[in-house]
Amino acid sequence: MSRIDTYLNELNDPQREAVLENSRPLLVLAGAGSGKTRVITTKIAYASEVLGLRPWEILAVTFTNRAAKEMKDRVTDMLEGIDVSDMQIRTFHSFGAWLLRRYGSSIGLSNTFSIYDDEDSLSVLASCYPESKKAELSPVAKAISLAKDMGLDPESPELADFRRDHVFRKQFADYEKKLRQVGNVDFADLIGRSIELIESDKQVAAMVHRRFKMVLVDEYQDSNMSQFKLLKSLVGPHTFVCVVGDDDQSIYRFRGAEVENILSFPDVYPNTRVVKLEQNYRSTKNILALASKVISRNTGRHPKTLWTDKDGGEPCKLIHVSDERAEALRVAMELRRNGKYDDAAVLYRTNAQSVAFETLFTQSGIPYKVIGALRFYDREEIKDALALLYILMNRNDEVNFKRMVNKPTRGLGGVSIDKVLDVAFSRSCDLITALHTSVEEGLLTGKAATGAAKFASLFDGAELKLQESNSEALRYLLEESGVVEHYKEQDIRNKTDKTDNLGTLVSTVGEYPAGKEGLGLFLESLMLDPTMIGHKDPSDKAGVSLITMHNTKGLEFDRVFITGLEEGVFPGRSSESDADIEEERRIFYVAITRARKEVFLLACSRRTMWGKTAYQTPSRFLQEIPRDLVETEGAKRESSVFSAGYGGFGALDAKRMRGDAYSPAVRKGTGRNANIILSPVKDFTSKGVQSNSAGDASGAFSLGDRVYHDAFGEGEVQGIKTIRGKEMVDVRFATGKISTFFSDKAPLEKLARD
Q: What is residue 725's DSSP assignment?
């Protein structure tokens, strides 16, 4: 038996069909976990050994360098003894660079051209508009890149619909003119200019069609309009074309990906054969039943149903909890129960949701790693917000002053800032006073004077707000400085969630006592805790994976926790059209199919953003799941957090948590925060006030103490910690609010225990 026969015998029937079909266009619909990479690599080996194609006659294109390398390594192993170095297995952009360096001279490109990354592209645009700040032009540069991915140029009529800003067309044209003047390309040009080359030079087109007799594309559902056009230009009259993908996993619409590319493939390429890979080798029957039911609600898809030879496995679980902290605590309980952290992943829709998990996992000693995103406290918008707080605490903080005094731009350039710094040095005054002085004495004029006065007044107002609460002080700084509006505009243009992240920080800082002492403890905790100041985990670090649903594509885990299943979170607030909802449903499907053994779905009854707690409605996707497909735990919305133990799970689970995940024996040796003790809230109903009053001595409170606050009502002491010799207590109130107080100044009355 030849080695190719051995490879074919290892395939199931549909996989084998896909390998053997080489006479007409082929669309392979490869469901999640169905072994598509094996099909592609076997098809390449078959083309080489049986069809007699030479290595340089095969082009295989995918979307990531990692996938391309894995594919080439597998093919090299399968075709041992054959030199495959001339075989083109590349990403779309790598292939574009290869093509342009060889034949780009016909469209005016030297073979030594440079490829500009995002920062370089922004610099090119900035050179066209030296009077504008880079921060102002950054959204424009990103919009230009997205427009190119959609196959648009400055002359495209569709540009008016793409971006209604009347100056955008000119900005786009000026950028393109400058780019061509310097003779270089940006990342999007690697696709766009390759199309231009093939379409404008018949000799190059003929060469490409003659050379590449087989063109394969992996992950075709992720292709954008430019990549769609490039593929069409590569396919000649005698080229065999095959695309592999899954329309149900098309989740990058925000980057310009067009699910229509894979849906319309049989129409674009007549006589297409469609082969469906529906046998899943990853997940259990229960997981696939859930995933199939979810995605079946989409109308824009090629019908398919995943199945497996595996047994039913553990039932999928739907867990209703009280809020985001209860959500994190419930996940922690399940992780502790199993103990295999490396095989588990916590999935969320937006990065802002990670902070509750990062904080609680750190406190409880659960190892974790954040995949595919900056750590929460290392993100630009969070650093900006913290910079304002550092200035509020120390008006001589020059580093943070220089970071924020002209961000967002308020007319204070380098010369003006130097004048302010000179005043501070010569008068021995703080930087905020120096701003006032510079304005009063006429050292700054015009926009610079107006901007300086407004920035200085921020901190006078924030001082007053700080006595009210830390959250109010930070909210005031962010709103009055223009930071919120600055990032809100970025979110709208770039489909990011930076304002949500700022809102999470506002909520977090509010958990510390109001005033400079409490705020100082918050900022100090960031410095002392490496997880909060952006120390990066090595990529191979053990632990639970924290990851957005988008970034989980291509990964798999034994246990998957899908969190934030609430309206406004998932699907998000901006998901309004049918196309938006179908995209969100595909994201849900991708999240579910990452799991090998267990799936946990979690939804909160209320969630706090911007320091405000709002009641949540369960995600519409949960309403679409038949009850027999999930085991449900907890009420959809508790009337009180105390009605069923912490987070809506029962007293037995609460007791288990106290005796397991957060017992002193477990905490011992975690390496950090051993003095921070977490405890779920117990059930209680009666008041029974004791005589203890506000201002009890340190040590007067114990875990589980029931307390009463004039403004917030009944609560329970959940945590006790000591920072710089100051004992602090964390109290959770029946409203869901969590607050921290100094033990010796706490305005709390103890209540009698049951």
A: T
